[in-house]
Design brief:
The chain is an alpha/beta fold and 225 residues long. The protein folds into two domains: 151 residues, SPOUT methyltransferase, trefoil knot domain (Alpha/beta knot); 58 residues, Trp Operon Repressor, Chain A, CATH 1.10.1270. Helices cover 32% and strands 19% of the residues. The protein contains seven helices and nine strands; from the N terminus they run E-H-E-E-E-H-E-H-E-H-E-H-E-E-H-H. Bound molecules: adenine (ADE). The site of adenine (ADE) has 12 residues, from strand 5. Adenine (ADE) binds next to strand 5.
Length: 225
Amino acid sequence: MRIDIISVVPNLLESPFQHSILKRAFEKDLLEVHVVDLRAFGLGRNHQVDDYQYGGGAGMVMMIEPLYNALEHLRKERSYDEVIYMTPDGERFNQQIANKLSLIENLIIICGHYKGIDDRIRQHCVTMEISIGDYVLSGGELAAAVLVDAVGRLIPGVLNDETSALLDSFQDGLLAPPVYTRPADFQGWKVPDILLSGHEAKINQWRDKEALKRTRKRRPDLLDE
Ligand code: ADE
Protein backbone atom coordinates (compact mmCIF):
# COMPACT_ATOMS: atom_id res chain seq x y z
CA MET A 1 0.00 0.00 0.00
CA ARG A 2 1.18 3.49 -0.83
CA ILE A 3 -0.03 6.55 1.06
CA ASP A 4 0.77 10.11 -0.04
CA ILE A 5 0.03 12.79 2.53
CA ILE A 6 -0.30 16.39 1.35
CA SER A 7 0.66 18.80 4.13
CA VAL A 8 1.88 22.35 4.80
CA VAL A 9 3.84 21.13 7.84
CA PRO A 10 5.54 17.97 6.60
CA ASN A 11 7.92 18.01 9.59
CA LEU A 12 5.00 17.06 11.82
CA LEU A 13 4.86 13.71 10.05
CA GLU A 14 8.55 12.84 10.17
CA SER A 15 8.58 10.57 13.20
CA PRO A 16 5.21 8.82 13.69
CA PHE A 17 5.82 6.10 11.10
CA GLN A 18 9.42 5.29 11.91
CA HIS A 19 8.82 3.05 14.90
CA SER A 20 7.31 -0.21 16.02
CA ILE A 21 4.77 -1.93 13.82
CA LEU A 22 4.69 0.64 11.02
CA LYS A 23 8.46 0.51 10.78
CA ARG A 24 8.13 -3.23 10.29
CA ALA A 25 5.51 -2.63 7.57
CA PHE A 26 8.04 -0.43 5.72
CA GLU A 27 10.79 -2.98 6.15
CA LYS A 28 8.55 -5.71 4.74
CA ASP A 29 7.72 -3.44 1.78
CA LEU A 30 4.04 -3.64 2.66
CA LEU A 31 3.61 0.09 3.25
CA GLU A 32 5.13 3.26 1.81
CA VAL A 33 4.26 6.69 3.20
CA HIS A 34 5.33 9.80 1.28
CA VAL A 35 4.77 13.28 2.62
CA VAL A 36 4.21 15.91 -0.06
CA ASP A 37 5.08 19.47 0.96
CA LEU A 38 2.21 21.60 -0.33
CA ARG A 39 4.50 24.66 -0.35
CA ALA A 40 6.35 23.16 -3.29
CA PHE A 41 3.11 23.80 -5.22
CA GLY A 42 2.54 27.24 -3.66
CA LEU A 43 1.96 30.30 -5.85
CA GLY A 44 4.46 33.07 -6.60
CA ARG A 45 7.71 33.98 -4.97
CA ASN A 46 6.36 33.26 -1.49
CA HIS A 47 4.90 29.89 -2.42
CA GLN A 48 1.54 31.06 -1.17
CA VAL A 49 -0.88 28.30 -0.17
CA ASP A 50 -3.64 30.21 1.66
CA ASP A 51 -5.72 33.31 1.10
CA TYR A 52 -8.58 35.36 2.61
CA GLN A 53 -12.01 33.84 2.30
CA TYR A 54 -14.62 35.21 -0.09
CA GLY A 55 -17.45 36.88 1.75
CA GLY A 56 -15.15 38.08 4.53
CA GLY A 57 -14.56 36.68 7.97
CA ALA A 58 -11.58 35.76 10.07
CA GLY A 59 -9.24 32.95 9.08
CA MET A 60 -7.45 31.94 5.92
CA VAL A 61 -8.50 29.24 3.47
CA MET A 62 -6.18 26.83 1.68
CA MET A 63 -6.17 27.78 -1.99
CA ILE A 64 -7.42 25.55 -4.76
CA GLU A 65 -4.46 25.76 -7.19
CA PRO A 66 -1.65 24.42 -4.96
CA LEU A 67 -3.86 21.56 -3.78
CA TYR A 68 -5.08 20.75 -7.27
CA ASN A 69 -1.56 20.86 -8.69
CA ALA A 70 -0.24 18.61 -5.91
CA LEU A 71 -3.06 16.12 -6.63
CA GLU A 72 -2.40 16.22 -10.36
CA HIS A 73 1.31 15.72 -9.78
CA LEU A 74 0.54 12.53 -7.83
CA ARG A 75 -2.22 11.30 -10.11
CA LYS A 76 0.06 11.56 -13.13
CA GLU A 77 2.27 8.89 -11.57
CA ARG A 78 -0.41 6.36 -10.61
CA SER A 79 -4.11 6.05 -10.00
CA TYR A 80 -5.47 6.36 -6.47
CA ASP A 81 -8.33 4.44 -4.91
CA GLU A 82 -9.32 7.20 -2.50
CA VAL A 83 -8.52 10.86 -1.85
CA ILE A 84 -9.22 11.45 1.82
CA TYR A 85 -9.61 14.85 3.43
CA MET A 86 -9.05 14.93 7.20
CA THR A 87 -11.65 17.25 8.68
CA PRO A 88 -13.67 17.48 11.91
CA ASP A 89 -16.90 17.53 9.86
CA GLY A 90 -16.09 14.27 8.10
CA GLU A 91 -17.35 10.73 8.76
CA ARG A 92 -16.23 9.52 12.19
CA PHE A 93 -13.25 7.18 11.85
CA ASN A 94 -13.62 3.68 13.30
CA GLN A 95 -12.19 0.17 13.06
CA GLN A 96 -14.54 -0.79 10.25
CA ILE A 97 -13.28 2.05 8.04
CA ALA A 98 -9.69 1.14 8.98
CA ASN A 99 -10.33 -2.48 7.92
CA LYS A 100 -11.72 -1.36 4.58
CA LEU A 101 -8.90 1.08 3.86
CA SER A 102 -6.24 -1.50 4.74
CA LEU A 103 -7.13 -3.45 1.59
CA ILE A 104 -6.62 -0.68 -0.94
CA GLU A 105 -3.54 0.00 -3.04
CA ASN A 106 -2.96 3.76 -3.30
CA LEU A 107 -4.28 6.47 -1.04
CA ILE A 108 -3.94 10.25 -0.88
CA ILE A 109 -4.58 12.11 2.37
CA ILE A 110 -5.04 15.88 2.41
CA CYS A 111 -4.33 17.65 5.70
CA GLY A 112 -6.26 20.87 6.20
CA HIS A 113 -5.11 23.97 8.09
CA TYR A 114 -6.50 27.38 8.97
CA LYS A 115 -10.23 27.55 8.16
CA GLY A 116 -9.96 24.52 5.89
CA ILE A 117 -9.57 24.00 2.15
CA ASP A 118 -11.40 25.65 -0.75
CA ASP A 119 -14.65 23.69 -0.93
CA ARG A 120 -14.27 23.00 -4.66
CA ILE A 121 -11.48 20.55 -3.85
CA ARG A 122 -13.91 18.73 -1.57
CA GLN A 123 -16.63 18.75 -4.22
CA HIS A 124 -14.51 17.64 -7.16
CA CYS A 125 -11.42 15.78 -5.94
CA VAL A 126 -12.02 14.33 -2.49
CA THR A 127 -13.69 10.90 -2.29
CA MET A 128 -13.84 10.48 1.52
CA GLU A 129 -13.87 12.94 4.41
CA ILE A 130 -12.77 11.58 7.75
CA SER A 131 -12.85 12.96 11.30
CA ILE A 132 -11.01 11.26 14.15
CA GLY A 133 -13.37 12.67 16.76
CA ASP A 134 -15.53 15.58 17.85
CA TYR A 135 -12.78 18.07 18.63
CA VAL A 136 -10.80 20.46 16.48
CA LEU A 137 -7.08 19.94 15.95
CA SER A 138 -4.90 22.73 14.64
CA GLY A 139 -4.32 20.77 11.45
CA GLY A 140 -5.05 17.45 9.82
CA GLU A 141 -1.55 16.00 10.27
CA LEU A 142 -2.06 14.33 13.64
CA ALA A 143 -5.39 13.00 12.43
CA ALA A 144 -3.67 11.62 9.32
CA ALA A 145 -1.04 9.98 11.52
CA VAL A 146 -3.81 8.29 13.53
CA LEU A 147 -5.44 7.02 10.36
CA VAL A 148 -2.17 5.74 8.86
CA ASP A 149 -1.27 3.96 12.10
CA ALA A 150 -4.67 2.30 12.46
CA VAL A 151 -4.76 1.29 8.77
CA GLY A 152 -1.09 0.37 8.39
CA ARG A 153 -1.10 -2.27 11.10
CA LEU A 154 -4.07 -3.99 9.42
CA ILE A 155 -2.40 -4.40 6.02
CA PRO A 156 -2.28 -8.16 5.41
CA GLY A 157 1.14 -9.48 6.46
CA VAL A 158 2.13 -6.59 8.75
CA LEU A 159 1.12 -8.22 12.02
CA ASN A 160 2.28 -11.70 12.93
CA ASP A 161 0.31 -14.17 15.07
CA GLU A 162 1.72 -12.65 18.18
CA THR A 163 0.31 -9.22 17.44
CA SER A 164 -2.74 -10.35 15.47
CA ALA A 165 -5.39 -7.68 15.11
CA LEU A 166 -8.19 -10.22 15.48
CA LEU A 167 -8.28 -9.79 19.24
CA ASP A 168 -8.08 -5.99 19.24
CA SER A 169 -10.80 -3.91 20.80
CA PHE A 170 -13.58 -3.12 18.30
CA GLN A 171 -12.49 -5.81 15.84
CA ASP A 172 -15.46 -8.00 16.83
CA GLY A 173 -17.59 -5.10 18.01
CA LEU A 174 -16.41 -5.52 21.61
CA LEU A 175 -13.68 -4.02 23.77
CA ALA A 176 -10.69 -6.28 24.45
CA PRO A 177 -10.53 -8.20 27.75
CA PRO A 178 -7.96 -7.30 30.44
CA VAL A 179 -4.41 -8.62 30.02
CA TYR A 180 -1.68 -9.46 32.55
CA THR A 181 1.96 -10.48 32.57
CA ARG A 182 4.53 -11.57 35.19
CA PRO A 183 4.66 -11.51 38.15
CA ALA A 184 1.47 -13.42 38.99
CA ASP A 185 1.41 -11.73 42.39
CA PHE A 186 2.59 -8.14 42.82
CA GLN A 187 2.34 -7.01 46.45
CA GLY A 188 -0.81 -9.07 46.82
CA TRP A 189 -2.37 -7.83 43.55
CA LYS A 190 -3.11 -11.13 41.88
CA VAL A 191 -3.61 -12.22 38.30
CA PRO A 192 -6.95 -14.09 37.88
CA ASP A 193 -6.35 -17.81 38.60
CA ILE A 194 -7.99 -18.95 35.39
CA LEU A 195 -5.20 -17.36 33.32
CA LEU A 196 -2.62 -19.51 35.14
CA SER A 197 -4.64 -22.71 34.69
CA GLY A 198 -3.32 -23.64 31.24
CA HIS A 199 -6.88 -24.60 30.26
CA GLU A 200 -7.22 -22.92 26.86
CA ALA A 201 -10.95 -23.37 26.34
CA LYS A 202 -11.77 -22.04 29.81
CA ILE A 203 -9.38 -19.12 29.32
CA ASN A 204 -11.07 -18.19 26.05
CA GLN A 205 -14.46 -18.43 27.74
CA TRP A 206 -13.25 -16.15 30.51
CA ARG A 207 -11.86 -13.65 27.99
CA ASP A 208 -15.14 -13.56 26.05
CA LYS A 209 -17.05 -12.99 29.27
CA GLU A 210 -14.70 -10.21 30.41
CA ALA A 211 -14.81 -8.54 26.98
CA LEU A 212 -18.59 -8.48 27.14
CA LYS A 213 -18.57 -7.24 30.75
CA ARG A 214 -16.13 -4.46 29.94
CA THR A 215 -18.09 -3.42 26.85
CA ARG A 216 -21.39 -3.38 28.76
CA LYS A 217 -19.85 -1.19 31.44
CA ARG A 218 -17.77 1.23 29.35
CA ARG A 219 -19.32 1.28 25.88
CA PRO A 220 -22.91 -0.01 26.00
CA ASP A 221 -23.49 1.80 22.68
CA LEU A 222 -21.36 -0.85 20.95
CA LEU A 223 -23.79 -3.54 22.05
CA ASP A 224 -26.76 -1.58 20.68
CA GLU A 225 -25.12 -1.60 17.26
N1 ADE B 1 -8.57 18.40 11.47
C1 ADE B 1 -8.84 19.16 12.55
N2 ADE B 1 -9.54 18.50 13.45
C2 ADE B 1 -9.73 17.24 12.95
C3 ADE B 1 -10.40 16.08 13.42
N3 ADE B 1 -11.02 16.05 14.61
N4 ADE B 1 -10.39 14.99 12.65
C4 ADE B 1 -9.79 15.02 11.44
N5 ADE B 1 -9.15 16.08 10.94
C5 ADE B 1 -9.11 17.18 11.68
